[in-house]
Structures are given as structure tokens and as C-alpha cells.
Structure prediction request, 453 residues.
Amino acid sequence: MADDTRALNAGTIAEEMAWLAAAIDQRIAEFFEAKPVAELPAPPVLDAQSVLGQLIRAHGLEGPGPRIALGLGLAAHVQPSLLDPFLLQNASLKRPFTEFGGVTQPHFPGFIPTVETALFVIAGCDMAARSAHAPMFSPDAPLISSHLVHIEPEGASKGVFGGILAMRDDTVHKILTGVMARPNFAPDFPAQYLSTAMTADDLVLPRQVMDQIEHIEAWIKHEPMILDDWGLRARLSPGYRVLFYGPPGTGKTLTATILGQRTGRDVYRIDLSKTVSKYIGETEKNLSRVFDEAERRSWILFFDEADALFAKRTSGGSVNDRYANQEVSYLLQRIEMCSAVTILATNLRSNIDDAFSRRFQSLVGFVKPDQGARLQLWTAALSGSGPNGTPVPRDDTVDLHALAQNYELVGGAIVNVVRFATVSALRRGAAQVGQKDLLSGIAFEFRKEGRTP
Prediction:
């Protein structure tokens, strides 16, 4: 079935590229032969099962104009040779024809289309027709607001329509395969995809906290109905802003990940302590793409170590103080305007400025587990999660009740203890984990935390 889908998508793309090539040939012929601008052939009716066909219909891009722009952005990825006719040189001036628009770059020998290129193919040199089609490139027009293509600025010297007409790699991947590729962690994309094999059943949280999490889940699932069907879009901003606070290891990251799992949304983690740049403006630049992608693809953004930027603002007058306040203001604004779900995590509630607290719809406090919760965590950690649900083998000396009663550990620390204990048991040649292995792991974990067991 996957091969059939890929073949269908490939055939549809080839059909669209053939139509685009014919349109380009027609406009170039008219240009060199000084012919009047003629109407382009109608674009093909694409198979409704193909990804490209579905995207065109979903966003109302069936007309020749949007199809030309969309096709140029796609051609630069899948068939760049189709754009080679635009590389023709003006023999008199010994440079490319300005009328074709486009740019070339040192690292790529081919032609890179711009908005000017699209307008040339759509309307030739007919100024009235070009003006009539220009609004399709405005930010709120379907072509751009759909995020299928975007315009990358090329500098003021390139003119109003000099922006590069680009298509994102993940969009091309979806058109080819039917699957939206996830971006990779990189300096210019400081976010990592979070996933877990655990489920909501593995969360051990107080009932009050679980109720708050379920409330957030309900908003995510019913946001369109609340805003549109119930008429609250004018009064409520889209998106949801949440603060998770509590000691390390109490389940903040896991809860965010499982929230995404239960709502069918990808969760991306941004470690703000590692994102802050010493260069003014770099943090804003690096995070801007993350926010844009989160809104475009309805992600959940999880800001870990939020204290790094969201601590109380300083009133100092140094350059560093002013820069810190500048970043805080930027992130406040982006989070408040973000239409995605944003979760900020901090170890201490008191570290967050009150200016942030007022912007959250929910403040969720995570606490260290009590004895009963610790017993649940020990039981879950040793229950196993393999393909057959095989539990960790343990001998008769293991007393989980005693461990839960005598040692105050959070969930993350308990998992670390189990890891240590399994290795310890295998090192001594045992086929099962014993109480001594677990106690050794507890002692090791306590030493890491600077505590005495």
C-alpha cells in the first residue's frame, strides 16, 4: 500500500510539473517573440487521493495563479532543471533577464524562483494582470497563510517582489511520501522531539493535579468548538499557556509528553538554559522558527529550565541587564500570541515573575510523592514494559513497601535506582535483582543529590 501511495504521489507531481513546464515555455516564447500574453492552459485536475491534490483542494488553490506559485516552489526541490530556461542570458547586457526575476546562489548552480518569477509565468509582462495577481502573495492570502510556500526576503535592493518563493523541506517530504517529517535539533532549531513508551496509566500524580491535566487536554481537544462554534474567538485568544512547577523528577516532562500522546500532538522540548545566546538577538532568532513551526503544525512546546529566561527581571542598567529584559519581553510576547500550547517548567514557583503568572491559563504544582505514591512508582518501575510486559526479575528479599516507607525519592530517582540495581545484579552474576542491589542504587542516588541514605 505504501508503494502504491508513493507511486500515486510521484505521478501527480509529474503531471503538475509537466503543466508548469508548458506554462513556462509559453511565457518565455511570448516574451522573446513579442507576442501578446495569452491565457495559460488550465491546470490538471489532480487525483483526490494524492497528497498534492488534497492540499490544493483543502486550501482553495485550484486556480492557475496559486498553482504556478506552488509549482515553482516545489520544482526547486523535485525538478530544478525545469527552471533552467530562466537562466538564459541577455546577450546585450551579458546578464540574466530582469523580467524573469529569480536569484542564483554560490552553493546552488540552479535558478531559485522569486515572487517576480511567479508573476512572470502567471501574467507575463502585462502590468495590469500582474497587479491583479499580486495580492495572492500577501500574508493572509490562502497561498501564504496555508504555509505551503513562504517568502524569504532577499533584501530591499531586489524590489518588492524579489523575495524567494520557497517551500519547506517537510512540506516537500509530505507531498512526496504523505508523511510530515519532523525537524532535527540544530543550532537554528533548538528544540527536541519528546516521545515515551509510557502511557497515562504510568503517571502517578495527585488527583488534583490529574484533574488540571485533564482540563488542559479537554481544551486542546475542544478548542475549535469553544472558539468558533460557541462564539468566543473574539474574547479568548487561541492556544493555551501553562506553568508546571515542582522539584526535579516529579513528572513534569513525562506529563507534557503524555499530554501530547493523548491529544495526538507532537511535543518539542526547548531547554532555555542551553538556548540563551551571548549574542544579542540570537535567542530571539533561534526561537522564532520554533514558534512558527509550533503554530503551523499545532505542536505542544515544552520550555524546560524556564528560570533561565523567565526569572524575575532585573532593574539594573548594564548592557547584560537590558539584554536579559529584552529577551524576556520578546518571549512574553511570543508566548502570549502563540496559537499553540506552551508549557513552561520550573523547579520553583517563586522563580517566576508575577508578570508571567498572569499570562498563564493554568499553574500546575508537582509535589514529591508520598509513601503511597512511592509504592506505586516502585511497582511501576519494576513491572517492565517490554513487548511481552515482562517484569524485572527480582528475588524474595525485595520489599517495595519498606523502600517506599523508608526512602523519600521522586519518580525520576526511582527509575535511576532500578537502572543501577539491574546492572549491579548482572555484575555479580545474579539472575534476579535483590534488595541489596536496590539499596546500593538508593545510596548512589542519594550521594548524587548530596544526601545521606
Observations:
- The chain has three domains: 2-177, 192-365, 371-448.
- The two ends are 57 Å apart (CA to CA).
- The chain has a mean pLDDT of 88.
